[in-house]
Design brief:
There is one protein chain. It is built from no helices and 11 strands. The protein is an all-beta fold and 119 residues long. Strands 2, 4, 5, 6, 9, 10 and 11 form a 7-stranded mixed sheet that branches. The protein has a 4-stranded antiparallel sheet with strand order 1-3-8-7, with no helix packed on it. A hairpin with a 4-residue loop joins strand 7 and strand 8.
């Protein structure tokens, strides 16, 4: 099982980034994929989750209306489109997979991608 995040980088406040989570080694449409982040000195924050089988999505309050989760079920990849980025969005972003629907505990995690938002 492998999850690989990409798409992070440095962006100015108000800008956008799209993160990708490429997955392999499991039956994609049997899982839910979540996005999380962890800023220095803070705990891991759940941002969004997508149940692949039925397309149901969830968003955390801090990103609702700014971030959008989606998937390409042919490429077994989940995306996180991040708009109107703020300096407080600076963190390492992770994707994770859980069998079934969006609920803890997540079984598999990626290595993370850094997002830095400058003011």
């Amino acid at each position: 099982v492998q999850l690989v995040e990409s798409g992070g980088g440095l962006v100015q406040a108000g800008g956008s980034l799209r993160l990708s989570c490429a997955t392999s080694g499991f039956t994609f449409d049997h899982y839910a994929i979540g996005w999380f982040r962890q800023a220095p000195g803070k705990g891991r924050e759940a941002l969004s989750c997508l149940t692949i089988s039925d397309g149901q999505t969830r968003y955390g309050d801090s990103v609702k209306g700014r971030f959008t989760i989606s998937s390409d079920n042919v490429k077994n990849t989940v995306y996180l489109q991040m708009n109107d980025l703020k300096p407080e969005d600076t963190a390492v972003y992770y994707c994770a997979a859980v069998w079934g629907s969006c609920m803890w505990p997540y079984d598999h995690w990626g290595q993370g991608t850094q997002v830095t938002v400058s003011s």
